[in-house]
Design brief:
The protein has about 375 residues and is α/β, with parallel strands linked by helices. The protein has helices at about 1-20, 20-25, 50-55, 60-75, 75-80, 85-105, 125-130, 170-190, 200-205, 215-220, 265-285, 320-330; strands at about 30-35, 40, 45-50, 145, 255-260, 285-295, 300-305, 340-345, 360-365, 375-380.
Length: about 375
Amino acid sequence: MKDCQNLISASLLRLRIKSPFFATLALFAQFISTDRLSTAGTDGKTIWFNPDYLLSLPSAQQDGLLLHEVLHAALLHRVRCGLRDPKVWNIAADIVINGMIMQQGTFELPPGGLREPKLENFSVEEVYELLFKRDPALLILPYPDLLYRSPEEDTLAPNVTLVGLDSLSQAHKAMLESHWKNALQQAKILTSVSQGNLPAGLERELGSLTVAQLNWRSYLWRYLVQTPTDFQGFDRRLIGQGLYLESLVGESVQVFVAVDTSGSIDPEQLRLFLNEVQGILGAYPHLYCELYFVDATAYGPYVVSLDMPLPSPQGGGGTSFIPFFEKVAESWDQLTQAVCVYLTDGYGYFPAEPPSLPVLWVVTPGGLDLDEFPFGEAVRLIRNS
């Protein structure tokens, strides 16, 4: 056991040389040996490792293993899993973390470390969605690292399984979020790292800690009230539950919804888009909603409501966003408050000039980078379960 503690201390010293930022984060974790795991894992704060496994690795791989677990914890992967399938979530998190580690150029991963370069530049939430487009039953854990229930939470048998990751209490989740937020702030200060100069991949993943967890329909709320005072007396925490202001009942707010039906949208994505349209109608019953199906042509408008079935999609060709905005410009009564919502993968031709209405782009996992949309606000369509 003493040998293991010496190995951990030596690894932290090497981390300090290779990356002071990551080494500072590691100081906020506790490292404990256990025979309950075959390799290593984390419960969100404590790093658990099998001493025999750690001793079997060369020093460079020991460093990569410990950094891997620290990043799982610091990036709140256990908290962010929520009700998602824990096995697939763990694979997604491993892909992102291992890519981040190897991009540093100074670390090695233990044998079996999972790499998928085409997915490494997405957030864990996006990779999870993209993995589910494959057959989840075929997914296996090629690297036996776990987001793990600690002995204090459970009395698991030695064969620990990926179950119950959403068992954390709200108080425990808040504690972990506060702990690692403080750790990240300290790491920036102590290592003189500023925003925009973080280690490769980390800034993108940090951004997903807040943005990717927020249901995109909550963004839509901001477009459906006329002034900030419309929020007076309303608990903003209820927005994500689809609740709306009583003062807006009876008002007509027009929403132009475009569903991308081009050839790049597969049937599962189209089904998800149509579910989101139904979600808009159910969450905001005071809306007047016009629906368009769009590839290189805009089909519609179709006036839709919660009590009627959606029309059958049309399309399947190339992608141009221009026809939708042209049709909206023709039909919009400028005396009516309105917003455009475009559900798409983002790959297509944009208008040369932005429309006069606010635009909310809702983008599929793996779609166009959100920073590349030339106008409006772009958010990622991420399911929380």
